[in-house]
Write a structure and sequence with these properties.
Elements: H1 3-7, H2 10-26, H3 39-51, H4 55-67, H5 74-102, H6 110-116, H7 127-147, H8 151-175, H9 191-205, H10 214-241, H11 254-267, H12 275-293, H13 305-315, H14 317-339, H15 343-348
């Protein structure tokens, strides 16, 4: 497949943008705000707090769609992908630690930093880089597995996730109806295996037209079903503990993650896209990794809450924070575009 053909997968760029916005929501004061809300705001906030949990699965699905169909040598894998990931982890962890030391919030020792980097996450959201590095190390094993799976096998994999990763855990938590612990398919449902494989399968076997009909409507009812049961689990947890927590918010993540990926695959087509959007989506999509990495340097809350305080009297709590997230997103986008001019940052970002 040529570079031009790959570049026409605009839906993957749209998914990147959606996923990083969901990450930003998850790291904002708006996340879990349903704890202090009621009525419609309570329901919307809980729904968004559930949906934002799909961000990392979607990133892994995108990686699967882009990388599992490739053939490359071990040296190319190491040089092109693993080195870049390690550099991103090391450079931005170093910068974050340095920032905290300058602010007087923590001490800094270069030797200690080097020794602890393989063992500890410098900034909590950078855990994803360690996980992504694990995925890259698994690529030589995952590629032949994915490339030799047919459509029915991918459908079977999704069925296993729905049954063993969703239905039975819900029955267990709501009705105390648990499967025998020895009956498990959990290894294949692990994030580093399941999501890249399913992303590759949807990209390879689902056509744009396939779900633009009643099938698409029917399949998307699963989103409402997953929210209904997530809500029941969260409320049950509240009844038992007296506090709203996030324990069950990501419990059924696989369903909305697959639906978002499927919907974007089906609905986002270059056939109807105006020329300016064909240029904008790939441009913004290429900035997403850098936008994520800047999370430790410019985020919502803190000084940026000037946006929230200015808007909340007019639009309310949740819309004000969503608008703040969008403003921070644009600021990070501009900064990444500038940083990409630097040689080292161009290699990383």
């Amino acid at each position: 497949m040529s570079g031009m053909e790959k570049r026409k997968k605009y839906y993957l760029d749209a998914l990147r943008v959606a996923a990083v916005l969901l990450v930003m929501y998850n790291h904002s004061p708006a996340y879990l705000s349903f704890q202090v809300q009621s009525g419609v705001e309570f329901e919307i906030s809980m729904f968004l707090s559930m949906v934002c949990k799909i961000a990392v699965p979607v990133f892994f699905m995108i990686s699967g769609a882009l990388l599992l169909g490739k053939t490359e040598s071990f040296s190319d894998l190491f040089r092109k992908r693993i080195v870049r990931c390690v550099l991103a982890l090391a450079v931005f962890s170093f910068l974050y630690k340095l920032k905290m030391a300058v602010k007087g919030a923590a001490s800094f020792s270069l030797l200690s930093f080097i020794l602890l980097l393989p063992r500890e996450v410098a900034f909590l959201p950078y855990w994803y880089l360690y996980s992504y590095l694990g995925f890259l190390l698994l690529l030589p094993i995952l590629r032949p597995l994915a490339q030799n799976m047919d459509r029915k096998t991918f459908q079977y994999l999704i069925l296993l996730q729905i049954v063993f990763g969703c239905v039975f855990p819900v029955l267990g938590n709501l009705k105390q109806w648990w499967l025998c612990g020895y009956l498990s398919v959990s290894p294949i449902l692990a994030d580093l295996l399941f999501y890249p494989l399913v992303g590759y399968g949807i990209d390879r076997f689902v056509t744009e037209e396939e779900f633009r009909n009643w099938k698409g409507v029917f399949v998307n009812t699963a989103l409402l079903i997953s929210f209904y049961f997530t809500r029941k689990l969260v409320l049950k947890d509240y009844a038992q503990t007296g506090a709203y927590g996030e324990l069950f918010l990501g419990f059924l993540t696989a369903i909305p993650a697959m639906l978002l990926f499927l919907d974007c695959r089906t609905l986002i087509s270059e056939k109807w896209m105006p020329g300016w959007l064909k240029k904008l989506l790939p441009f913004v999509g290429d900035m997403v990794f850098g936008i994520y990495l800047l999370d430790g340097f410019i985020g919502t809350g803190g000084k940026m809450d000037i946006i929230f305080r200015a808007l909340s009297p007019f639009v309310g709590f949740l819309p004000a924070y969503i608008l703040e997230i969008l403003v921070v997103f644009v600021i990070r986008l501009i900064l990444v575009a500038i940083l990409k001019k630097l040689p080292l940052m161009k290699m990383i970002l």
